[in-house]
Specification:
This protein has 7 helices and no strands. It is an all-alpha fold. Helix content is 39%, strand content 0%.
Length: 192
């Protein structure tokens, strides 16, 4: 009986390893450790608006060429994605938005990400253009984003600056636990 369980156990373990590795990859910061505090402190100077999102979309699909790797739908499935290792970030995945700040995303777009195919676009895009692309990229997450990221502290590896759980202590619109909004979201008086 024990011998017959071995093949089943081997299959279960082999299937579990790739999902664990993918999740670990999703949570891994892409900003170098010595730049992480600086990156997390960055916040967008742009107001959230449909006009900024439209600008970001035009840049994502045009001048920024983001779609080549990240795909038209932000799923990390662009025409060049199959050739890249590691795979491009999937902006539809809620974990992407929950585990980093907008400043970290800005830093990576501007400076690139060592160990990946993500090159820095600071020489091609202005800071304002990068911030507008980030607003557009958030739209890929739908109801999942930006989660705990909000406009300040993300979870980073596990803790945000100041020792808090990466923004969980923050209340208000799009802050706090999961950034829940809309008619299906339980609201407290402090979140309105």
């Amino acid at each position: 009986m024990k011998l017959s369980m071995f093949p089943l156990l081997a299959v279960v373990v082999s299937l579990a390893i790739p999902s664990w590795a993918a999740e670990r990859h999703m949570m891994q910061p892409r900003v170098p450790a010595d730049k992480l505090a600086e990156a997390r402190a960055l916040t967008s100077p742009l107001p959230s608006s449909p006009e900024i999102v439209a600008q970001g979309k035009a840049l994502y699909n045009g001048k920024g060429t983001c779609f080549n790797c990240h795909g038209k739908d932000g799923g990390g499935n662009g025409p060049a994605a199959a050739k890249l290792d590691p795979a491009p970030r999937n902006f539809q995945h809620h974990g992407f938005w929950r585990h980093r700040t907008e400043g970290e995303i800005f830093w990576v777009i501007k400076n690139g990400s060592v160990g990946t195919s993500m090159v820095g676009f600071g020489g091609q895009l202005t800071d304002e253009e990068i911030w507008s692309i980030i607003q557009y990229e958030r739209s890929f997450a739908g109801a999942h984003g930006p989660g705990m990221m909000g406009h300040g502290q993300g979870m980073g590896p596990m803790m945000g600056p100041g020792g808090g759980m990466g923004g969980m202590e923050r209340g208000g619109s799009r802050g706090g636990m999961g950034g829940c909004e809309g008619k299906d979201c339980p609201q407290s008086d402090s979140n309105q």
